[in-house]
Design goal:
globular; 2 helices; alpha+beta; seven-stranded antiparallel β-sheet; 129 residues; 22% helix
């Protein structure tokens, strides 16, 4: 997989959700880096005022996708955290790299795909997709 193929998959996933009445606006920035690396970030605004802010720095080498850095931050209309997936280092260190923030706790969680995060939001809100 080359980085442009990955970017196309991300765009197609967002477009699929944009066709629903629950997604109001989506912004996506794509930046090709050297080799098969890329940085993407954006935000998706939903009905009711909730927002997903996301970013990824990825390396696609030998058909393998490696998310070097990622964050999927979902918040309500009052800017309060609903959940966030990321792999940021913490002090003190967490016993795991990939994790999910929920109100008042941090749990181990696999690095999700953007499409999985969008589906989680739709399920959480009770929207049919």
């Amino acid at each position: 997989m080359v980085i442009q193929t990955y970017f196309n998959q991300i765009k197609a996933g967002i477009d699929r959700y944009a066709a629903t009445r629950f997604l109001l606006d989506a912004k996506l920035n794509l930046d090709l880096r050297s080799g098969d690396q890329g940085y993407l970030n954006g935000s998706i605004h939903f009905v009711g005022g909730s927002v997903l802010h996301f970013k990824e720095f990825v390396d696609v080498e030998n058909a393998n996708l490696d998310k070097l850095m990622y964050s999927y931050h979902y918040q309500d209309s009052d800017d309060r955290l609903i959940f966030r997936y990321d792999n940021a280092l913490h002090k003190p260190r967490l016993p795991f790299t990939d994790h999910k923030h929920l109100s008042g706790q941090i749990i181990e969680a696999q690095a999700p795909e953007l499409a999985d995060v969008l589906q989680e939001i739709f399920n959480l809100q009770g929207w049919a997709q």
